[in-house]
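Priority: low. Protein: TTF1 factor. Input follows.
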Amino acid sequence: MDLDIARQELEEFIPHVRNISDSSIKKMAGRDLTRFKEFKRQGIAVKFGRFTQKENNQIQKNIEEFLLLTGIDSAEKLLFTSRYPEDKDTIHHLKTEYHFCEKISEGVPRPWRLIYYRARKMFDPNNYKGRYTKEEKEKLKKYQALHGNNWKKISELMSRSNLSVAMKFSEIKSAINYGPWTKEETQKLMQAVKEVMRRKLRAEDGSCVSSVDQSSRDLWIDREQLCQHLPWTEIEARVGSRYWRQCKQKWNSILTSKMARGQQLYRGTNGLQAKINLIKRLYETKAEDASEVNWEEVSDAIGDVPRAYVQNKFHRLKVSSVPGWQRKTFSEVIEYLFEKTLPELQEKL
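Result:
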């Protein structure tokens, strides 16, 4: 399929498709477009965000059925083939012969790549090994000194997932400051985000390199790019005195303030009204799971703020207002907030 046509057809299902690279578009045209059209015919929308338990169960079923079909004896061999070099060629042949891409994504209305990553997270035996021991932390520091940031190599040596070793090293290497952010730290953070955003734009669109380099003006960047998928461990390294989660939280705070033009959205009567609007909008969605919520649209109920900001405020609201929220489903939490908490907030306002 012609690249422009593929991009145009995918845009119906993925609004941010214009920001996706050409190579990814080609893969999605082959793996996803036909599936997306079939889901549309059935009246099912393509989803993003957190996977539901129903989707997790479907992925598990798909993997188990594929193992039975091919005779591959474990999900780890299927999804982490590089760990089994002696079986690699046979497994690749079976995956091709029995249409692995199609089978693993059956019944799950999401891009194939996200389904594959979710399956790897679910079935990686190295992913759920609890807290790092003191000995493991020392090993991690030693391996990083030997191999740099080759997290794939280090994960194999430590029998931990790539993400786990990268995040843990990020945590233990920093001289973390837990106090208020200084002006210098905040400037370092903003400069770090600006630099990685410029690099991402250059990588995604080579034609904009000259304008980026020659212009002293800030670039207009899609809000989703400013909020999601930033390389936080790299930003942490540039800031130097803060753990990556602190950097992420601070950036969301800065972004929220800039989008809201400095208004204190969650203070005083503004805060009460924002909570009321948030509960009403979530109740109107009739969503059964958080992953079914379009958080970009919900954020409009509060103001021009990032999705992550609204999700964080919702989490705080349910923790502070809904007794036993951990044992309730998403829809039960929303129902409680609407029936019990909303009238109290309206009276207080």
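The chain has a mean pLDDT of 79. The longest helix spans residues 183-204.
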